[in-house]
Write a structure and sequence with these properties.
Structural class: alpha/beta
Distance between the termini: 54 Å
Number of strands: 10
Radius of gyration: 31 Å
Largest sheet: 6 strands, mixed
Order of helices and strands: HHHEEEHEEHEHHHHEHEEEHHH
Length: 358
C-alpha cells in the first residue's frame, strides 16, 4: 500500500507543484492588474481627466472580466481533470448490446404466462456450457422452483428468459412465441425480476417505484406498498414517498429495500415473475414479512423461484433440480424427497432435524 501511495504521489506532486505555481501567478497577476488600474486611475484623476466614479466603474468592469476569465479557466481545468471519467461514461453509453431486436420483431400482448424451454444450451466462453439441453414447460400461474448448487446454471437459465443473452441452440417461448422474435422492451415489460440485492437509485422512493411503471399515480404506489408490507416504514419517514433512499438504497435496511423491490414488481404487474434468491440475505423476522409480500405478488402469475434454501420452495408447483447446467430431477417436493436422489440429499442436509436423524 505504501509503495502504491508513493507512486501516486510521485505522479501527482509535479503536476500539483506546477498548478500551485500557476495558481499563485494568476492570483498575483489579478492583484497587480487591479492595483495598476487603481494607480493609473489616480494618476488620470490627478490630471482632471476622470472622476472617482469613473475609476470605481472601470475597476468594477475589470473585476467582472477577471472573474469570468477565472471561471472559464476553472471550467477548462475541470474538463481536463474529468476526462478519464468522461471517457468511461461515454464508453458505457456507446456500448452496443449483443442482444438486439430483429427487424420483424413483434410486441407481446395479452400474455398468459406460458413459458417453454426447448433444448436450450448456452455457454459464456463457447467452450463449457453454463446450461445444456434445458427442456421444460411452465403453465400459466404455476410456481417453478430452480434449486441446485452455486454455479449449476439456475440464474443463467433465467437470464436467458429475459434475454440478457441469447442461447447458442434451442428455443425459449412465451405463449408459443419465440422470444427472439419479440421486441426487447415488450419482453422485459412482461417479465419482472426481484433480485437478492435490490437495485435502487439515489432518488426518492416514488421515483424508484416508478421505474417499473412510469405512469403510476401516488394512489397506485401506496396500494402496491401496502400489499408489499412496505407502507409501514414509508409512513415513518417524514417525507413519505419523497424520502430519498440514498446510493443503492443505503438509507434503508435490507428488508426495507427488498420490500420496495417487491412493491415495484407489483406496480409493474408482469404476468411472469422471477425471484432470484429474494430472501436469502434476511433475518428470520424480516424474511417472514418479505415472504408474506412475495406470496401476494406471486398470485396469478407464472413464477420462477431461484433458491438455495429448500424450505422456501416447499409449496412450489414443480421443482427443477440443476446440476452442472442440466436438469437432473423434476417433480413436487414430496415426490423428489421420496425418489431419494440429488434433491433428497439436499433436503436431508438442510431440513433433517437432529431428532429425525436419530
Amino acid at each position: 500500500m505504501r509503495a502504491v501511495v508513493d507512486r501516486l504521489l510521485g505522479a501527482q506532486m509535479p503536476v500539483l507543484s506546477w498548478w500551485a505555481v500557476v495558481s499563485t501567478i494568476t492570483k498575483a497577476s489579478t492583484t497587480l492588474t487591479m492595483l495598476a488600474i487603481l494607480i493609473l486611475g489616480l494618476f488620470v484623476f490627478a490630471r482632471g481627466q476622470t472622476t472617482i466614479g469613473g475609476i470605481v466603474m472601470f475597476m468594477s468592469f475589470a473585476g467582472m472580466l477577471i472573474q469570468r476569465l477565472e471561471q472559464a479557466a476553472r471550467f477548462v481545468n475541470s474538463v481536463f481533470i474529468n476526462v478519464p471519467r468522461l471517457e468511461e461514461f461515454f464508453g458505457v453509453l456507446d456500448t452496443t448490446t449483443s442482444v438486439k431486436d430483429r427487424k420483424n420483431a413483434v410486441t407481446l400482448k395479452n400474455v398468459r404466462g406460458e413459458v417453454s424451454f426447448d433444448g436450450v444450451t448456452f455457454s459464456y466462453d463457447r467452450k463449457s456450457p453454463a446450461v445444456e439441453d434445458l427442456t421444460f414447460k411452465a403453465e400459466p400461474g404455476e410456481t417453478i422452483a430452480l434449486v441446485g448448487a452455486t454455479g449449476a446454471g439456475k440464474s443463467t437459465a433465467m437470464a436467458l428468459l429475459y434475454r440478457v443473452y441469447d442461447p447458442q441452440s434451442g428455443k425459449i417461448s412465451i405463449d408459443g412465441r419465440d422470444i427472439r422474435g419479440v421486441k426487447l422492451a415488450s419482453l422485459r415489460h412482461n417479465v419482472g425480476v426481484i433480485f437478492q440485492e435490490p437495485l435502487l437509485f439515489n432518488r426518492s422512493i416514488a421515483e424508484n417505484l416508478r421505474v417499473g411503471n412510469p405512469d403510476a399515480t401516488d394512489e397506485e404506489i401506496l396500494a402496491a406498498c401496502r400489499r408489499a408490507e412496505a407502507l409501514e416504514f414509508i409512513e415513518r419517514h417524514g417525507d413519505g414517498l419523497n424520502a430519498n433512499v440514498g446510493e443503492r438504497g443505503r438509507m434503508l435496511s435490507g428488508g426495507e429495500r427488498q420490500r420496495l423491490s417487491i412493491a415495484r414488481a407489483l406496480l409493474k404487474d408482469p404476468p411472469i415473475l422471477i425471484l432470484d434468491e429474494a430472501t436469502s440475505a434476511l433475518d428470520a423476522a424480516t424474511e417472514a414479512k418479505v415472504t408474506a409480500a412475495l406470496n401476494e405478488v406471486m398470485k396469478g402469475r407464472t413464477t420462477f423461484v431461484i433458491a438455495h434454501r429448500l424450505a422456501t420452495v416447499r409449496n412450489a408447483t414443480r421443482i427443477l433440480v440443476f446440476d452442472h447446467g442440466r436438469i437432473v430431477e423434476s417433480g413436487s417436493f414430496d415426490e423428489l424427497v421420496a425418489k431419494g436422489g440429488v434433491f433428497a440429499k439436499l433436503a436431508e442436509v438442510q431440513l433433517l432435524t437432529p431428532a429425525a436423524a436419530q
